Amino acid sequence: MDLRDTPDEARFRDELRGWIATNLPAEKRGGRGGAQRFEDPFVREWSRKLYEAGYAGLTWPREYGGAGAPYSFQAILYEELAAAQAAPHVGVIGLSMAGPTIIAHGTEEQKARYLRPILAADEIWCQGFSEPDAGSDLAAVRTRAERHGDVYVVNGQKVWSSFAHIAERCILVTQSDPDAPRYRNLTYLLVDMHAPGVEVRPLRQITGEAEFNEIFFSDVEVPVENRLDEEGNGWQVAMTTLLHERATLGFALTATLDAAFGRLLEEARDREVDPRVREELAREWIELQALRYTNYRALGTYERTGVPGPEGSGVKLRWSEANQRLTKLARELRGPEGILDDGWWNHQQLRSRGNTIEAGTSEVLRNIIAERVLGLPRSR
Amino acid sequence: MDLALSDDQLELKQQARVWLADRFPLDRDWEAHNDRWSELAELGWFDVAEAGLGFVEEALLLEELGYACYPGPYIATVGFALPWLSAEQRARVAAGEERWSVDVNGLVPWLGAVDFVVSDGGTAYPARGETVASVDPSRPFGRLDKADGEPLAGNRNLPRARTASAAEALGVAQRALDLGIEHAKTRLQFEKAIGTYQAVSHPLAQTYTDVELARSLVYWAAWCVAEKDERAPLAAAAAMAFATEAAVAACERSIQVHGGIGFTWEHPLHRFYKRALWLEGFGSRPAELRLEIANALLE
């Protein structure tokens, strides 16, 4: 237990801070997230710069273009990017989900083909998991992959896919054998989003913008060599993807909450704040610290075992609720002006409603904690 | 950059858990207040520095004392009073010869069971005065008769005292959660374990996240106190506000999960609930701590 940076970590943090100060223009700081990250061409340029400086895929093995660094370096990257109010790398799904899954389950050819373009932001990936009738219940996906010789023919629909409208590739979970038992019926494919039969329709959300998409697959031919792992092993592969999503997610989430809290605090300093709102500000600051240090505890376990420990299983759940409360508090703080669309908090208020739904609804996360962490009997 | 417990720290915690479970089981005689003070002295719990350990380890012991609902004035002596004491006084504490408490807002925990009391910003008084009942019957208070005071050699360490309360509250919260889980697994209604129902399991999942977040704050604060980090005052205030409230909420949810049996005198849950209420109310209450933090943030 030592909260200080090791000499290596301190050196990395110093260099990174200096690099951000030199390379990130002031007017590109403080973006509000959401759809902005797709529309501004600077975001892809910035991602490429991160790659060229060696900050993309920090924890990936060196042989695949990564830095082979410990997870603490990835945590420092999230912290420092958030502190500078800088955009993260645009290839977030490739970096934290597709890439690690390909490293774990891919053939050497697949690794050679797909990994480097993820790091360089040359190829953006999207995730084809959720469907209209398979949200929390991933094993119930119906998008069909039928083997015809050297190809799978894919038909079906995916939904809530962020980045799909700008993505080159998709990690796609398909139903390959309707007669096979649950969890043995899925196949995991790497799909070219420009292939004939792939159609992307933006899904306009309550913020008014379209951050997510529906993807329609009509007789899309996916070469068999684009299958990840064996036919019927899609469930296990998908679990690898979700495990990696969770591993450093806590740091990324806490970093965004930290940045938003900093913004709220700045606004609070310019105003008379009544004691009730002051107390709520402190409550949110405490929750933020609790999340931060829970990540630090989880990091130790993850570095030792390579598997996220139970410590972090509540972080996404608590973060999503904290982020929602923060936007309400901001509106309260702004008093009568809280009713105005200020271009930032109003967007956060609406966007944060998705936080308790995306990447595992709060209800599913509580089930997971109850069953897998507390050992309570299954509710289904 | 790491806040995970070391193998040695985990082992210390485990040994304390086992030792306390043996001496202070749930089916103990709760009205008998044998606090096994001399045995704690033999274990070295009154002077962890002697074993090369520091405040993080003391916090782990306090967590386990909370988990066991330990009856004696350990937290008053080691958690609250120790920083005020001279080397000679500490040696007598280490040997189990002296028990101490502190006067906070005119209330002295365990006045009738300790030897000396720290009051008036650094004066030691012999423990004399009238006793008053508290929310936790195992932790009565007293009002100090101030006579024969002697100046103390040491100093106040408020972050340390607050972190001690937070650590004990963490242990109470964990025990309330564990009791709730056990009951939800074994109690059958409508032919199923009640933990099958999400209306029962989800409040326990909520308590679990409270406990893990409280643990992170307590270990953070303990590390800051041990390392004399400049963030210690804020970290300790945060840990105390969060962990004591979490302990109260954990007990309340656990009582609800237990149903009727959780409302009986016979079941030990109310002992933990009363301990949690005591910790939440002693010294600084959560709302005060939050205002203190807000003032620092908005400075």
List the topology elements.
The complex is a heterodimer of chains A (380) and B (299).
Chain A: H1 7-23, H2 36-39, H3 42-52, H4 71-83, H5 92-105, H6 108-119, E1 125-128, E2 144-148, E3 151-162, E4 169-175, E5 186-192, E6 198-203, E7 212-223, E8 227-228, H7 234-269, H8 275-305, H9 315-333, H10 345-351, H11 362-373
Parallel strand pairs in A: 1-4
Antiparallel strand pairs in A: 2-3, 3-7, 4-5, 5-8, 6-7
Helix pairs in contact in A: 1-4, 4-7, 5-6, 5-7, 7-8, 7-9, 8-9, 9-10
Chain B: H1 7-23, H2 37-43, H3 55-68, H4 74-81, H5 87-94, E1 100-102, E2 108-109, E3 116-119, E4 123-126, E5 129-132, E6 141-144, E7 150-151, H6 158-186, E8 188-189, E9 192-193, H7 198-226, H8 232-258, H9 269-281, H10 286-298
Parallel strand pairs in B: 1-3
Antiparallel strand pairs in B: 2-6, 3-4, 4-7, 5-6, 8-9
Helix pairs in contact in B: 1-3, 3-6, 4-6, 6-7, 6-8, 6-9, 7-8, 8-9, 8-10
Provide a quick synopsis of the model:
The complex is a heterodimer of chains A (380) and B (299). Chain A is α+β, with helices and mostly antiparallel strands and 380 residues long. Chain A contains eleven helices and eight strands.
Molecular structure report:
The complex is a heterodimer of chains A (380) and B (299). With 380 residues, chain A is of the alpha+beta class. Chain A folds into 3 domains: 7-119, Acyl-CoA dehydrogenase/oxidase, N-terminal domain (Butyryl-Coa Dehydrogenase, subunit A, domain 1, Orthogonal Bundle); 125-231, Butyryl-CoA Dehydrogenase, subunit A, domain 2 (Beta Barrel), CATH 2.40.110.10; 237-373, Butyryl-CoA Dehydrogenase, subunit A, domain 3 (Up-down Bundle). Helices cover 46% and strands 14% of the residues of chain A. Chain A contains 11 helices and 8 strands. Chain A has helices spanning 7-23, 36-39, 42-52, 71-83, 92-105, 108-119, 234-269, 275-305, 315-333, 345-351, 362-373, and strands at 125-128, 144-148, 151-162, 169-175, 186-192, 198-203, 212-223, 227-228. Chain A has a 4-stranded mixed beta sheet with strand order 1-4-5-8. By secondary structure, chain B is an alpha+beta fold. Chain B has 2 domains: 7-151, Butyryl-Coa Dehydrogenase, subunit A, domain 1, CATH 1.10.540; 158-298, Butyryl-CoA Dehydrogenase, subunit A, domain 3 (Up-down Bundle), CATH 1.20.140.10. In chain B, helix 3 (55-68) packs parallel to helix 6 (158-186), helix 6 packs antiparallel against helix 7 (198-226) and helix 6 runs antiparallel to helix 9. The longest helix of chain B is centred in the middle third of the chain and has 29 residues, at 158-186. Chain B is globular. Chain B starts with 6 loop residues before the first helix and ends with a helix. The relative contact order of chain B is 0.12. The mean pLDDT of chain B is 97. The interface between A and B is large, with 54 and 49 residues.
